[in-house]
Design brief:
Elements lengths: L13 H20 L4 H8 L3 H4 L1 H13 L3 H7 L2 H21 L3 H29 L5 H29 L4 H20 L13 H24 L4 H23 L13 H31 L4 H29 L1 H19 L8 H16 L2 H10 L6 H48 L6 H38 L17 H4 L5
Helix pairs in contact: 1-7, 1-8, 1-9, 4-7, 4-10, 5-17, 6-7, 6-9, 7-8, 7-17, 8-13, 8-16, 10-11, 10-17, 12-16, 12-17, 12-18, 13-14, 13-15, 14-15, 14-16, 14-18, 17-18
């Protein structure tokens, strides 16, 4: 059976889709599984936390380097070959990580994991786009949205529980058997064939893409901790920007580019890409700021912090398939307007946090915010992809996923920088006010009381910094809300038989 050639009359291959989604689920879950375990890993290997952070940074960098090549890989190889290769790499990396007894081996294992997981997302997205007609894609992509949002969202909660009760290696022991089962099912169940496609990857494009996207991802992800004036930050950003400019110019001159940037000529795809970037920046603000508020300011344990955020993740997961069906019926604009309005209101409510905000209030606001986000992310992305001709689907999914990676890194860096600067400013103001009050007082505090007061002022300053950052995030969401008014239902252009021929257009889909 040729699974890539599904037409509107043929029933989509649901069994194969389930296997692909199972692989994607463990890959997405793995992306956030180590976040809470980093202190334990750093202590076990007796390394500095900044070095341990490379388990996250390295994973992200490999994703950023591999995803842009996915358009070429999807066109060149069959779904079976790509998925089995990706799942094999992921499973091998997971097993290797569980047995790692030195940090370099663990880091290498994580990067092998990432090389596999980075291919699964574009392969699955492209497969869904080619397996369903446009009028039913929303439902299919809604289920995919469940995996894309729910899996990484439960990662910290699951990780917190495991690290609290077991050693960190259990994180890999839990994922390994699942990855192996999915790999075995893929070997026996996915039977697609692909005619030989005579295309070759341009090595210079790969180098420029790796330097460009890798440099930007590393630069922005490091800015929050090292500061913008660090040479490693601005140096890699400059190199990344220059390489990316040359990469884009080279792709525009090539007959068969590695990544087709001409798809930005389709207005609705371009609009969806911009909205997705803006939403990703806003999304990462809460993903970063909420744990800081809950754990650092309020002193709640990592596991219980994860539990507070879990209802929002569950709601987002439940709503993704429902929003997919609503998208098929009503289109993306209605969902985006409602979703972004909810997101803007709840983000503003987060800018009013205090030391006494109840956990019930936090759960409710966060859950409604995730509900709003779920109404925007996949519908907007799917609507943009729907405008593309079928032969452009691999490039559309590759660009969307690459932009999501980069915008997430940008959002993290910008939000952390703003929070740090505002925290420092509020700290100076609060310290000056406290000094003034002490100078007017007839009694001087004891050293113990002074230390307690300094700690309280530090927490209050961080709280104010978090509130200010959330307020700026409201403005980011409002930009996306304004842009969503210009969204309309996308319809892909009709293609002639010659245009859709894989031998003439180097198609990914047979």
């Amino acid at each position: 059976m040729n699974i890539n050639a599904t037409t509107n009359e043929k029933k989509p291959p649901y069994g194969i889709i389930v296997i692909l989604m199972a692989g994607a689920f463990v890959a997405f879950l793995n992306s956030t599984l180590l976040n809470i375990a980093l202190p334990s890993i750093s202590a076990d290997f007796e390394i500095d936390p900044s070095i341990g952070q490379w388990l996250i940074t390295g994973y992200m960098l490999v994703n950023g380097v591999m995803i842009p090549t996915s358009a070429f890989l999807i066109q060149k190889y069959s779904t079976r070959r790509l998925f089995i290769t990706a799942m094999s790499l992921f499973a091998f990396g997971t097993i290797m990580a569980g047995m790692a007894h030195s940090f370099p081996i663990l880091l290498l294992s994580r990067m092998i994991q990432a090389s596999g997981s980075s291919i699964m997302l574009p392969v699955l997205m492209n497969f869904l786009l080619t397996s369903f007609p446009v009028e039913k894609r929303g439902s299919a992509m809604g289920v995919f949205g469940l995996i894309m949002t729910f899996a990484p969202a439960i990662g910290p909660t699951l990780s917190g529980y495991i690290v609290e009760h077991y050693e960190w290696r259990m994180l890999f022991y839990v994922v390994s058997p699942i990855a192996i089962i999915v790999l075995i099912l893929a070997i026996f169940k996915i039977k697609d064939k692909k005619e030989k496609v005579d295309i070759h990857i341009d090595r210079l494009s790969v180098v420029l893409s790796s330097l460009g996207f890798g440099g930007l991802l590393y630069g922005f992800s490091s800015a929050g901790t090292k500061g913008w004036t660090n040479i490693h930050v601005y140096g890699t950003l400059i190199v990344g920007a220059i390489a990316l400019i040359f990469f884009v110019l080279r792709q525009l001159k090539m007959t068969t580019p590695m990544l087709e940037f001409r798809i930005f000529k389709y207005p609705l795809f371009s609009l969806s890409a911009v909205i997705t970037i803006v939403i990703n920046i806003a999304l990462f603000s809460a993903m970063l700021l909420m744990p800081m508020y809950i754990q650092t300011v309020r002193g709640i344990s990592p596991f219980h912090s994860g539990l507070l955020l879990l209802p929002g993740a569950i709601i987002m997961g439940i709503m993704s398939p429902i929003n997919g069906r609503l998208f098929d019926k009503y289109g993306a604009r209605t969902l985006a307007l409602i979703g972004l309005t909810l997101t803007a209101i709840t983000t503003y409510m987060f800018s009013q946090l205090s030391m006494t905000t109840t956990t019930t209030t936090l759960v409710l606001i966060y859950s409604v915010r995730m509900l709003g986000m779920s109404m925007v992310m996949m519908p907007i992305m799917t609507n943009g992809l729907n405008e593309l001709p079928q032969r452009m689907n691999p490039h559309g999914t590759a660009l969307n996923n690459t932009l999501s990676q980069v915008s997430g890194a940008i959002g993290s860096a910008v939000m952390i920088t703003i929070m740090s600067q505002r925290t420092a400013t509020h700290g100076e103001e609060l310290a000056a006010q406290a000094m003034k009050e002490m100078s007017n007082s007839t009694t001087q505090p004891t050293p113990e009381a002074l230390a307690t007061m300094q700690e309280q002022l530090g927490m209050q300053a961080m709280l104010e910094g978090i509130n200010d950052t959330f307020l700026i995030s409201v403005g980011v969401v409002l930009v996306a809300l304004i842009l969503s008014f210009f969204v309309k239902r996308a319809v892909p252009p009709k293609e002639t038989e010659e245009q859709t021929s894989p031998t003439k257009m180097n198609e990914a889909v047979e």
